[in-house]
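Hi V.,

Quick status before I head out on leave. The structure for the redesign project is tokenized and pasted below; the design run finished overnight.
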């Protein structure tokens, strides 16, 4: 994004001194990227200074997984949470993959273990297991295929079996069930951000802002997506808003998503509620700079695990969005 436009966007939540500091950090990061042949991948939930200021590729988990698989950089710095950086390492075993904060975790990735998946597969050998990309490398390694919120229905329908288990996001599985004839079994995991949205949020917004478009992520509970105007992955939400240009939007996802969409859609007003992911907010410009300077924190995946996880990921990438 052009510097002046980014400065105007940052003025929404930064003081003038903070903006000056941010641009100084961005310049240092850009210099280091060139010197070290590094590429930065930025998830949609990054704050605008990180998302627009230093990221070479931005998008949702699927888009960034593809970018990770195709990059020729020597160093990949993933501005997102740990499972995302693991995914980049799985697809790029000979590259150095970094994450700016090791504590940037995910409630969904913590909701299921490889041992639990193996136990299910032993008890249900004819039911394939689809894991959401929001899962650990060890879980991906023992599942049949990975999906993202953008391609979950397509992945489920690519399998020949009449029933599948989707892990770890129960709400995503329930939302997929509405769009397929297959029987979708689900896990009990929930996103700590998206589970907070309720039908009352929508009712209040429609009462206070007649004509508002309600846009939800499929990690929200089915009762919420059922009464929303549009449900989609982060990239699909972005495409919807850019193409439809609604005058007012209630965005039921992580707060920075709205800020980042606003950066390219100034005529769209985002009303009322959003929720902050504390894990995503651990990734800051200061942390990104330190990560490149000291080449920390490097992400490692045991080779046996990596091979199994790559098989599941490649199967998904062959299907596409």
């Amino acid at each position: 994004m052009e510097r002046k436009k980014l400065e105007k966007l940052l003025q929404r939540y930064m003081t003038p001194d903070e903006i000056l500091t941010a641009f100084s950090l961005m310049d240092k990061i850009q210099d280091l990227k060139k010197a070290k042949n590094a590429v930065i991948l930025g998830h949609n939930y990054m704050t605008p200074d990180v998302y627009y200021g230093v990221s070479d590729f931005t998008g949702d988990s699927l888009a960034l997984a593809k970018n990770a698989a195709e990059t020729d950089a020597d160093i990949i710095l993933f501005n997102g949470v740990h499972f995302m950086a693991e995914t980049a390492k799985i697809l790029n075993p000979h590259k150095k993959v970094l994450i700016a904060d090791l504590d940037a975790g995910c409630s969904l990735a913590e909701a299921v273990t490889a041992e639990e998946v193996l136990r299910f597969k032993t008890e249900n050998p004819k039911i394939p297991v689809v894991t959401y990309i929001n899962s650990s490398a060890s879980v991906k390694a023992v599942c049949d295929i990975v999906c993202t919120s953008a391609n979950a229905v397509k992945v489920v329908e690519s399998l020949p079996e009449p029933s599948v288990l989707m892990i770890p996001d129960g709400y995503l599985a329930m939302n997929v069930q509405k769009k397929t004839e297959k029987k979708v079994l689900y896990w009990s995991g929930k996103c700590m951000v998206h589970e907070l949205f309720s039908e009352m949020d929508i009712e209040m917004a429609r009462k206070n802002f007649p004509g508002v478009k309600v846009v939800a992520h499929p990690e929200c509970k089915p009762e919420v997506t059922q009464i929303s105007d549009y449900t989609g992955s982060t990239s699909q939400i972005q495409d919807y808003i850019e193409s439809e240009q609604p005058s007012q939007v209630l965005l039921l996802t992580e707060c920075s998503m709205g800020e980042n969409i606003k950066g390219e859609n100034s005529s769209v007003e985002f009303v009322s509620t959003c929720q902050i992911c504390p894990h995503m907010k651990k990734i800051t410009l200061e942390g990104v700079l330190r990560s490149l300077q000291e080449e920390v924190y490097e992400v490692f995946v045991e080779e046996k695990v990596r091979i199994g996880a790559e098989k599941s990921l490649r199967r998904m990438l062959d299907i596409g969005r």
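Above is the designed sequence. Residues 43 and 59 are 5 Å apart (CA to CA).

G. will cover questions while I'm gone.

Best,
W.
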